[in-house]
Amino acid sequence: MKKRCLVVTGGGDCPGLNAVIRAIVKRASKEEGWEIIGSRDAFNGILRDPMEIVELDNAAVAGIHVRGGTILGTTNKGGPFSWPVQDKAGNWIEEDHSAEMLRKLEFLNVSAIINIGGDGSQRISQQLFEMGCNIIGVPKTIDNDLGATDITFGFPTAVEIATDAVDKLVTTAASHNRIIILEVMGRDAGWIALQSAVAGGAEVCLIPEIKYDINKVVERINKRIRNSRGFVNIVISEGARPIDGSQQYLENDEIGHHNMRLGGAGNRLMHELKEAGIKTDIRVTTLGHLQRGGKPGAYDRILATQFGVKAFEMVLEKGFGKMAALRDGKLVAVPISDAIEKYNYVDLNCDLIQTARDIDISFGD
């Protein structure tokens, strides 16, 4: 009987997921006695009745590395430890169905799992590993906020998309003598905002790691706009917040969904600027899921492919409880516990922050 390796993609989608899946399948096809299967919508496909399983062979993954999203589907709702069920009164509650899922995996003859996802997904990986599950992690997040790896796939393409937006908004801001605020993703780490602001030549960059003083932002704007002439482009992370405020959240009451939904940082900034006396016309653009969609760039395809090959080789080596990572240009295996222990915030002493300051980008501090 062939050994089975289960592949799951969890959390938010991002460019490069399909390239990882393809690489795992192609690497596994070189080994005798292995079969790759996938679960629909992260682990939810295993937990559903009937189960939703996808057979993954070379034909199934042919050419998918150029496609965005994931052929397996993904979700940040539900999962083995927060499975939504209705109680006798008809109310939705969450239950721990991890033991049931492990029994199903044993029934399916699954010898190993490769879990492709970010911080939340890898926390699930660690919990399952502690229950005795043979699991390998692959780091994925456009925010680049997962520790123990120098970079996560999905992030470079997201930065390219955000930079392209800055480029386009610069021309329209200049044409209308406007202030244009671009809100990009970045819950607690401002990597997308920082890199796209530097690449696109924004005047102001507001990130979660630096609480901004609206008066400092106004000061920077007034250096650019005189007698109603001039323009300013601002890049702001969705998780940015003023010195006397908190992050801007949207209401979320979905069962099984534990991530707070950020949103509105750009619009809040616009109102703050108006209240501070800015008379210049202001417009806000929120990129949202545009940063997650579309085909991956070349670097993400390469990195995702490397991670996929490395992950299956870790399965062969029985390196369970570890995550594929890139360290100093080398592919390595690191404990999943290390990856989720340290969050990858923007280091305020890093060279890129200093470069941004040296070219007169204001962080509102």
Q: How much helical structure, as a percent, in the residues?
A: 25-40%
Average pLDDT across residues? 94
Enter the CATH topology name of the largest domain.
Answer: Rossmann fold
* Main pleated-sheet profile: 7 strands, mixed
Structural class: alpha/beta
- The CATH C-level name of the largest domain is Alpha Beta
**Given the C-alpha coordinates, what overall shape results?**
elongated
- Work out the radius of gyration: 22 Å
- What is the terminal separation in angstroms? 62 Å
Q: Helical segment tally? A: 12
Tally of separate domains: 2
Written description of the protein model:
This protein is α/β, with parallel strands linked by helices. Helices cover 35% and strands 20% of the residues. The protein folds into two domains: 3-153 and 296-341, 3-Layer(aba) Sandwich (Rossmann fold); 157-292, Rossmann fold (3-Layer(aba) Sandwich), CATH 3.40.50. Strands 3-2-1-6-7-14-15 form a seven-stranded mixed sheet, sandwiched between helices. A four-stranded parallel sheet has the order 9-10-8-13, with helices on both faces. A two-stranded antiparallel sheet has the order 4-5. The radius of gyration is 22 Å and the shape is elongated.
Characteristics of this structure?
single chain, 365 residues, alpha/beta, Rossmann fold, 2 domains, 7-stranded mixed sheet, 12 helices, 15 strands, 20% strand, elongated
